[in-house]
Amino acid sequence: MKPQLNDIFSAVVAVPFGAMGIRTDGQVIRELVYLPKSFAEKDPADAIAERAMLQITQYFQQEDFQFDLPLADIGTPFQRKVWAQIAAIPRGDVLTYGEVARLVQSAPRAVGQACGANWFPLVIPCHRVTAAGGLGGFSHHDEVDGFHLGVKRWLLAREGVTDL
Q: Secondary structure of the chain in the HEC alphabet?
């Protein structure tokens, strides 16, 4: 029997723009993935996946929900520094890649690469980082009418950011 794409996830939860794939490893979240609506929901394989599903659902139901999930210790020291700065951006606010770069004493392109390498979207809200002249890319995608930039637009609009 051919494996299904859902098989790589410990759970898949429906969200307003499609689905979120959840990968766990032991007692931590290894990865969260934005997925199109074509992905079927999948019941959680373990307690951590169930906790992530519950919190993702709560995020979309409660305006100021704060995640509390055990995340795998992955990424380079620089990526973790950028992700920590991004995690501090309040709901409804955005910073440009250049503004984040100044805060972490780096370059905008390096910040953009760290954003694209984010293993934990929503929890680390890279959608709140934009280009100086507009939306910018998202999850290493920059197709104007593509799925990922549609997700970024949707998330920002949900938070009240509509002028990009």
A: CCCCHHHHCCEEEEECCEEEEEEEECCEEEEEEEECCCCCCECCCCHHHHHHHHHHHHHHHCCCCCCCCCECCCCCHHHHHHHHHHHCCCCCCCEEHHHHHHHHCCCHHHHHHHHHCCCCCCCCCHHHEEECCECCCECCECCCCCHHHHHHHHHHHHCCCCCC
With a CB cutoff of 8 Å and minimum separation 6, the contacts of 88 are none
Are the C-beta atoms of residues 19 and 41 closer than 8 Å to each other? yes
- Portions of the chain given CATH number 1.10.10.10: 77-158
* 10-residue mean pLDDT series, the chain (164 residues): 69 96 94 93 96 97 92 96 96 95 96 94 95 80 74 92 81
CATH architecture group of domain 77-158: Orthogonal Bundle (1.10)
The pTM of the full predicted model, rounded to 2 decimals, is 0.90
Catalytic residue at 115?
Answer: no
The active-site residue, picked from 13, 48, 71, 126, is 126
